[in-house]
Amino acid sequence: MTDTAFDVKDFRRALSQFPTGVTVITALDTEGQPVGVTASSFNSVSIDPPLILWSIDKGAHSLSAFEKAEHFAVNVLGRDQVDTSNRFASRGEDKFKDVAWHPGLGDAPVLDEYAAQFECKTWAVYEGGDHLILVGEVKEYRYDNAVLPLVFSRGGYAVSAQHPAMAKTMATETEGDFVGDYLLYLLRATYNRYCAKLYPKLQEQCNISPEEWRIVIRLTDHGRLPVAELSAMVMQPDDSLRATVDLLIEKGLASYTNASTLSITAQGQEIGKQMQDIAHAEEAELLSLLPDDQAKQLKGNLKTILEKLSSAS
Fold first, then answer.
1. For the chain, which domains are there?
2. What percent of the chain stands above pLDDT 90?
3. 95, 194, 260, 312: which is deepest, by most CB within 10 A?
4. Stretch 135-154: mean pLDDT, rounded?
5. Strand 71-76 relative to strand 101-103: parallel, antiparallel, unpaired?
6. Tally of CA atoms within 13 A in the half-sphere of 18 that contains its CB
């Protein structure tokens, strides 16, 4: 690959194949005001001394604050903090409004909710192309084993889950055990196996990734949708959603009606209908394992549970 052939968008897609955690980095600016950004570049560096690093875009509004801050905190987000991630990934708003936090080490703000937290003293700042790399020495840390961490992968939010191969191994090992009769395990194991069959077919027959599938299938039903609404539907932050949409536009499957609204094209509708047929066939094969009345009851019960959980949250 030569410099002239370097495709920035394609490079980002390649990077998105590596799943990361999602963090909000917080500090105080020189006027004592809290600043925060969403970052997936967090990583460990050293155990002795305990060092971590993350990087910030040189175009970020809060660049100067983090570059000059003596202390900062890394707040690793949990699976229920998608809204928090989106808030701190946005520009031009009071990011800390309605977010519970308190002063930590060096008065740097720390969020009240987290999967893990690392309070750091700035150890070094390095140049890194169009980013600055900040290394922090961990002075305090804490974590909550009860909180499943939020994951960012292939342009969208996800949660860590057991690999289907492990689920297959455990299927016989858990018979008669608590886990083998636990609803959450049963739902997750079924989901993993279902996706392991569906997604490769969508890629092979339609040249559509899971992230593209979620967007196209929504647009197939609705025709057009506001980007903000679509972002919430498919669990992708705005920037990542637009990157996936750019690829769909290149494929001729979608187009912008205006800056804030996305529409599906005739070709997109055709691909969407094809994917619906594939998905329906997979669903029918799965439900054929049950008598018709039990299959209908299963879907009805799951819808009821989902509706009640949604109304309670």
1. 7-153 (2.30.110.10), 207-312 (1.10.10.10)
2. 53
3. 95
4. 90
5. unpaired
6. 6
Which residues neighbour 144 within 8 Å (Cβ) at sequence distance 6 or greater?
Answer: 78, 114, 115, 116
Hey, what are 259's tokens? 């800056």
Q: What is the structure's pLDDT at 135?
A: 97
Q: What are phi and psi of 130, to 5 degrees?
A: -90, 10
Mean of per-residue pLDDT scores for the chain: 87
Cβ 231 vs Cβ 268: under 8 Å: no
Give the separation between CA 28 and CA 106, rounded to whole angstroms. Answer: 9
Beta bridge partners of 110: 102
Q: What is the token pair recorded at 17?
A: 């194949």
In terms of DSSP H, where are the helices of the chain?
8-15, 63-68, 82-89, 164-173, 183-206, 210-222, 227-234, 238-250, 266-287, 292-312
Residue 164, burial from CB neighbour count under 10 angstroms (0-12, 13-18, 19+): middle
Buried residues in 133-142 as b, exposed as e (16+ CB within 10 A): ebbbbbeeee
**Beta-sheet pairing, 131-143 with 23-28:** unpaired
In angstroms, the CA 99 to CA 112 distance is 8
Question: What pLDDT digit, counting tens, does each position of 89-132 carry?
Answer: 887 678 998 899 999 999 999 999 999 999 999 999 999 999 99
Mean pLDDT across 263-291 = 93
Three-class DSSP category at 158:
strand
Q: CB–CB of 122/68 below 8 Å?
A: no
218 touches 233 (CB < 8 A): yes
